[in-house]
Amino acid sequence: MIEIEKTALDGVIVITPRRFGDARGWFSETWNDARLREVGLDLNFIQDNQSYSAPRGTLRGLHFQTNPVAQDKLVRVVRGAIIDVAVDLRKASPTFGKHVAVELTAENGKQLLVPKGFAHGFITTVPDTEVFYKVTAPYSPENDKGLAFNDPALGIDWGMPESELTLSDKDKLHPVLADLPDYF
Ligand SMILES: Cc1cn([C@H]2C[C@H](O)[C@@H](COP(=O)(O)OP(=O)(O)O[C@H]3O[C@@H](C)C(=O)[C@@H](O)[C@H]3O)O2)c(=O)[nH]c1=O
Q: Whose CA is nearest to atom 34 of ligand 1?
């Protein structure tokens, strides 16, 4: 059994798989292909990724891969907590440039499905956070692109001042939305 919640952005959904609790703890099917197909999600995941972020306030993003290796991502947290963000980059979409932000924690077990055509990023809200996500296309450095996390046009509230963030050098230099080509 899985709970599916729509968000304000078409295609971005929150999935909460059931947890079966007992005296030992709990058990959960964190991904079940047949169950997702039953609810119309036909996704061919081909790679699993995991990242560990030591400091609270680690911000990774905003990232996306362009076609032909655009990726759908199914994101969850196995330790700690994040605010997970998806930004609509589909030029013809009525919600182009809009974003959703969802709290994913090891405790709440929520998963965010970020489809192709969206930029993705997250900030860790506690130290020692591990994020696990499945993707539907292989990593391709040539097609790996970024969008500035602090582009004022996006208006994302990351919940922490920029002086407290830890970013990769690459993530400090991404273009703003207005300077991105029409990728999708
Ligand atoms: C994403 C990725 C990175 N790498 C390598 C490249 C580099 O040497 C090292 C770290 O890469 P990055 O700095 O891009 O890692 P990171 O900043 O964690 O990138 C990730 O951020 C989140 C928000 C996403 O949505 C992911 O798709 C991915 O872009 O890992 C792979 O080998 N395979 C992969 O699939």
A: 139
Enter the tokens of residue 57. Answer: 């306030």
- C-alpha 50 to ligand 1 mean position (Å): 9
Q: In what order do the strands lie in the sheet with 118-124?
A: 99-105, 81-88, 118-124, 59-65, 144-146
Phi, psi of 178 (to 5 degrees): -65, -20
Pick the CATH number of 2-179 from 3.40.50.920, 2.60.120.280, 2.60.120.10, 1.10.150.240: 2.60.120.10
CB 29 within 8 Å of CB 17? yes
Find where tokens 């703890």 sit.
25
Q: What is the C-alpha separation between 153 and 58, in angstroms, rounded?
A: 22
Identify the residues whose C-beta falls under 6 Å from ligand 1: 49, 51, 60-61, 63, 73, 120-122, 139, 168, 170
Give pLDDT tens digits for 101-156: 999 999 999 999 999 999 999 999 999 999 999 999 999 999 999 999 999 999 99
Instruction: Give the ipTM of the model, two decimals please.
Output: 0.98
Question: How far is Cα 33 from Cα 87, in angstroms, rounded to an integer?
Answer: 25
Would you list the domain boundaries of the chain? Answer: 2-179
Ligand 1 centroid – CA 109 distance (Å) = 22
